[in-house]
Amino acid sequence: MCGLEWLPMLTTRLTARLGIRHPILSAPMAFAAGGALAAAVTHAGGLGLIGGGYGDAEWLGREFAAAGNARIGCGFITWSLAKNPSLLTQALSHAPAAIMLSFGDPRPHAHEIRAAGSALICQIQTLAHARDAIEAGADLIVAQGTEAGGHGADRAVLTLVPEVADCLARFAPDTLLVAAGGIADGRGLAAALALGADGVLMGSRFWAASEALTHPNHQKAALSTNGDGTVRQRATDIARGYDWPPAFTARVLNNRFVQDWEHRPDEHRAMAESLRADYQARVAAGDPDAVGVWVGEATGLIHDVIPAAAIIERTVAEAEAVIARLGSLRIAG
Ligand SMILES: Cc1cc2nc3c(=O)[nH]c(=O)nc-3n(C[C@H](O)[C@H](O)[C@H](O)COP(=O)(O)O)c2cc1C
Fold it and tell me: What mean pLDDT is predicted for residues 169-173?
């Protein structure tokens, strides 16, 4: 019993397949989604995912421990995981409900995940990625639109999600579809269901949850801007020395750091190594103007830092209200 039994329930194929109460997943956000956030999402009736990110065995062990016995999942950045696949074996030793792979070819890791009894979630940004995910035998595909915080690509949710829904209906009807990117309230959840998704994955909204590992200064900066205030860019990866495939950029706040560096990548690359320690010190200090602040266009829909359970409760109640209102519209004629 989680104490939330009175909440309305939006049951979909996703809730049935994953055995959860609400069709809401929290994104496996590197450096932000630790065990406390993942467990809070799961306890509130969604499925929480730890952000395995670029892979740090000690961090991963600590965050799985922080989640206690909550049934959670874990996500990895696939091109990075390929350099150190033992991290996947480590994560699977905790019997996660699901492993989510994003940004790279999921096929080399699919067998190990499914053999361990975890659901395989593939986050995709294009139809070509969706076809690779189907080939990998994905249980769930997360179609991520360009609105999303963090890394992603160029397609928008409004066309990507229904196009992937059509593709799945034709080629993989048992594979479920989850929408991601710009979803931070019940309007977004209702819209995602209308587009053919079975549920949503929210990142930015949970990045601004009380349980997230996000620096409070960054949350404050994000709350004080609106959806116009983010941009896709590469300066943050150059600063950190991450060798991202060129197809992916990262959405962050369009702050002084981005404006200083984004238009001069060659100069930045030449200097980045000598500036790295200073950049990391500014990350630790939480200066929201001097480093990347990882949030998506949904920042304009986020007005408070609240517990994950309150986010889920509010999102579900709002979605129910939207669906009821749309259901009561009269069709003239
Ligand atoms: C702070 C932050 C970090 C993220 N890190 C990762 C990551 O490590 N791996 C990943 O697959 N996706 C990552 N993402 C993207 C999410 O998986 C998801 O697609 C995105 O948050 C959805 O859009 P939204 O932010 O508008 O909710 C990150 C997103 C944010 C906001």
Answer: 98
Residue 290 lies in a domain: no
Same-domain pairing of 138 and 277: no
**Residue 332 resides in a domain:** no
Q: Domain residues for 264?
A: 216-285
Structure tokens at 140: 């769930």
pTM: 0.96
> 243 and 112, same structural domain?
no
Task: Answer yes or no: is pLDDT of 266 > 60.
Answer: yes
One domain for residues 199 and 221: no
Does ligand 1 have an atom closer than 6 angstroms to the CB of 210?
no
pLDDT at residue 2, rounded to an integer: 44
Minimum-distance ligand 1 atom for the alpha carbon of 297: 26
Residue 1 pLDDT exceeds 50: no
Residues 196, 311, single domain; the answer is: yes
Question: Distance between CA atoms of 292 and 244, rounded to whole angstroms?
Answer: 16
Tell me which residue of 145, 163, 41 sits closest to 98, measured CA to CA: 41
Protein residue whose Cα sits closest to atom 21 of ligand 1: 203
Residue with CA closest to ligand 1 atom 15: 150
Task: Say how many Å lie between the CA of residue 275 and the centre of ligand 1.
Answer: 26
Query: Ligand 1: which atom is nearest the Cα of residue 30?
Result: 8
Asked whether 252 lines ligand 1 (CB < 6 A), one says: no
148 shares a domain with 137: yes
Q: How far is the CA of 27 from the centre of ligand 1 (A)?
A: 6
29 Cα to the center of ligand 1, angstroms: 5
- Contact predicate 316/6, CB 8 Å: no
Residue found by looking up tokens 């959405």 in the block: 251
What does the alpha-carbon distance between residue 113 and residue 232 come to, in Å, rounded to a whole number?
31
Identify the CATH number of the domain in which residue 63 sits. Answer: 3.20.20.70
Residue 282 has pLDDT above 50, yes or no: yes
Ligand 1 atom nearest the C-alpha of 31 is 3
